[in-house]
Amino acid sequence: MKIIVKELGIKAKSPLAMVLLLSLNTLFANSIEPDLVIQRYQEKSLLMYLSFPQERDFKITLKDADRVLLWKENQLAAKHFSKKINLVNLPDGTYFLEIEDPQMITSCQISIKDNHLMVEEQKRTKRYKPVITQKEEKVVLNMFSPTPTDVEITILDREQHSVYQEVFKGEQRIERSFDFSKAPGGSYTFQTNVDGRLFTQRIDL
Which residues contact residue 63 at a Cβ distance below 8 angstroms, ignoring those fewer than 6 apart? Predict the structure, then answer.
């Protein structure tokens, strides 16, 4: 673990109070994950069915092996979604179909070889987004990963200067409580890099 702190009065504590740990367990124990079915339809088409426990905003994207965006669709306040996705114009290669909602990202790997499409179910991954809550000058960051992962937490001030940085290696659960009571007022940006994927959230004091 590596910690770099610029002295601006920000205090970080871990572990959190037991009540916060129980809240985190409850959050991830609840059925927030979507029911997702992806099947090959004909040679180079997909049938996708998606169902959430409750209505929510989400987006669906298709990216190539270099994570270049090929297609995107946004849904607002939806609970169920189904679609046929035609990939007939795509060359052989590896592709990723991602479903992102406010709480998590599910990624499904798709391969096309010799003009034949395969859904790689065994390579489906899920990534929970960091949860940041604020109560006046106290900010709590919680993060959970199904598998050990590398995480870097950075806090930027309103001038985009780094005032706090902490690096974790091979962690599955991270809890941090930040006390901003002695820090200058203004806006701060939390950047959480999870295995190369950056999540940002701004707080105002």
Answer: 69, 70, 95, 96, 98
* Helix, strand or coil, per DSSP, at residue 203: strand
Q: Is 20 exposed, middle or buried (0-12, 13-18, 19+ CB in 10 A)?
A: middle
Measured between alpha carbons, how far is 10 from 100 in angstroms, rounded to an integer?
Answer: 32
Sign of CA dihedral 175, 179, 183, 186: positive
φ, ψ of residue 29 in degrees (nearest 5): -75, -30
Report how far residue 198's alpha carbon sits from residue 162's, in angstroms, rounded to the nearest whole number: 15
pLDDT in tens, 112-140: 998 889 999 888 888 889 999 998 889 99
pLDDT in tens, 140-177: 999 988 889 999 999 999 999 999 999 999 999 999 99
Using an 8 Å Cβ cutoff, are 51 and 124 in contact?
no
User: Which letter does DSSP use for residue 32 in this model?
Assistant: -
CB contact at 8 A, 132 and 88: no
Angle at 201 between CA 199 and CA 205, to 5 degrees: 155
Contact 164, 4 (CB under 8 A): yes
pTM for this predicted structure: 0.76
Q: Which structure tokens are listed for 10?
A: 């920000």
Contact between 133 and 139 (Cβ < 8 Å): yes
For residue 145, give both structure tokens: 């990963």
Question: Which amino acid is it at 84?
Answer: K
